[in-house]
Amino acid sequence: TPPELLRNFCIIAHIDHGKSTLADRMLQLTGVVEARAMREQYLDRMDIERERGITIKSQAVRMPWALADESGAPQPYALNMIDTPGHVDFTYEVSRSLAACEGAVLLVDAAQGIEAQTLANLYLAMENDLAIIPVLNKIDLPAAQPERYAEEIAGLVGGDPADVLKVSGKTGEGVPALLDRIVRDVPAPTGEADAPARAMIFDSVYDTYRGVVTYVRVVDGNLSPRERIVMMSTRATHELLEIGVIAPEATPTKGLGVGEVGYLITGVKDVRQSKVGDTVTNANKPAAESLGGYHEPKPMVFSGLYPIDGSDYPVLRDALDKLKLNDAALVYEPETSVALGFGFRVGFLGLLHLEIVRERLEREFDLALISTAPNVVYEVTMEDGAVLTVTNPSEFPGGKIREVREPVVKATILAPSDYIGAVMELCQTRRGELLGMDYLSPERVEMRYTLPLAEIVFDFFDQLKSKTKGYASLDYEPAGEQASALVKVDILLQGEQVDAFSAIVHKDKAYAYGVMMAGKLRELIPRQQFEVPIQAAVGSRVIARETIRAIRKDVLAKCYGGDISRKRKLLEKQKEGKKRMKTIGRVDVPQEAFIAALSSE
Ligand code: GDP
Ligand code: MG
Fold this sequence. Notes:
This protein is an alpha+beta fold. The strands form 6 sheets. It has an 8-stranded antiparallel sheet. A 6-stranded mixed sheet has the order 2-3-1-4-5-6, with helices on both faces. α12 crosses α14 (about 590-600). It is globular and about 95 Å long. The termini are far apart. The structure holds guanosine-5'-diphosphate and magnesium ion (MG). The site of guanosine-5'-diphosphate has 16 residues, from α1. Magnesium ion (MG) binds near residues 20, 44, 53 and 55.
């Protein structure tokens, strides 16, 4: 297809504002998917995505759409819809998807208005000079307030509120008009057809049968089947075994030219060989310069993952090796814990990424896992000038420290103006610094903060939601590091350090953490034949103390003689629990106690 007839666009929307439903409707209206083959959320292919209703991996689909030109003759356009992931952890992937488009549909729920996530992605799209088509969705809902929100959106993107399209992804109302608008408002791609090929990778997905399927947007030149290609970040060359478009299944073509969007297959087995953001070029006629904007994925949050049953360790290792094929951002290395046994320290892009990986491990590999409280990466400079990178709090160095640096983020919070005070108070307790504040309308305000990432990974979002009755939304992006007064708090059981509970916290919060953790363990650890002190300490200084009194708990005493089978069950349970006892010093601790202490807030 010549570039004049191509339109590449994405849909920017907050989770639940109806992106998948609208995409489904477009596929149906353009005839790409027949109504009877339509299953809900056609594009959300991964099971977890479907169940949670979120989009994790972007996909691209090509749709035909005819629109009359000035003379009235219908022109056969091809629209490439690039589905962007919708969560803060995947900002980099979003930015690459946006870079593959000339236009963006800004989709806003007409009953909710715009949210922080949408706003952040909208700014990203504007920075990339994309044409923005503002659209209010779900106008079929009785609670929809299209007039009110049209004004808000027009205020943000410029233009007349009357030009904001109103659609229903559910009923299909307004969707053909939206497709027409995409053809009219989104610029056709431009590029140099005769130049060496430059195609940007905006997604790569591991497929069991085909190996890695790489999604690309061609900027210049042409890629053809069977030729050799080069990945410009690594200079690795591969044979192009297959190239084509998704419509909506993979359909091989004779190549992809300027402005086209599609997939390619080289037979590599690991997404790390086909990196998002990288530039693909021809091996026999390589481009001099790559397209720019490429980053290595950088894990921001770390957590220890341990199998509850120690004999599952090899299964966990194999499972991580498999997941890694499909997830370039996943990093891990073996680690051992006195409390939890053999496991891995795993790095993630953020909390959702952590949750997704954990859930996939449990679901697809049938593993029962325990994970330690997530922590960020610290950079510690010692008095003698040595610099250490700490990804596990229990490895935080003792001795003379000159400076500790922690990652910070730039956060955007959108909230009704009634909650400004509540939001400010929360951000204050989380060591936030207000950068600025803007009213989107008299009722809604956008607040921008710098916050330590560590304060966000610890239940910030839940707190924000509860303090604003669910009305606030949050988005954040990495914003470098800052020096902070951080200390390590250790938890000691009878004088022995319990490694899984060490935490790095701001010095003003050390006491609260120590009291909370010691209290929790006192509740959870059964009494022993001797008294067991639980201490929280910063270095050699004890900051909190609890004691487990010495009484042996008689399990059978509870049964009052009566029911024999119940007694037997209890004994068996106790035996099983014993098997999974961990010994810290002289203290026997059932693993359940650790799990419980780590899992609740
Ligand atoms: P996504 O998270 O942005 O992909 O949103 P979905 O497409 O999964 O939609 C979220 C919820 O909104 C689902 O329950 C949809 O059925 C519902 N929904 C989506 N579009 C419409 C619409 O136009 N009208 C109504 N009434 N509901 C919609
Ligand atoms: Mg979706």
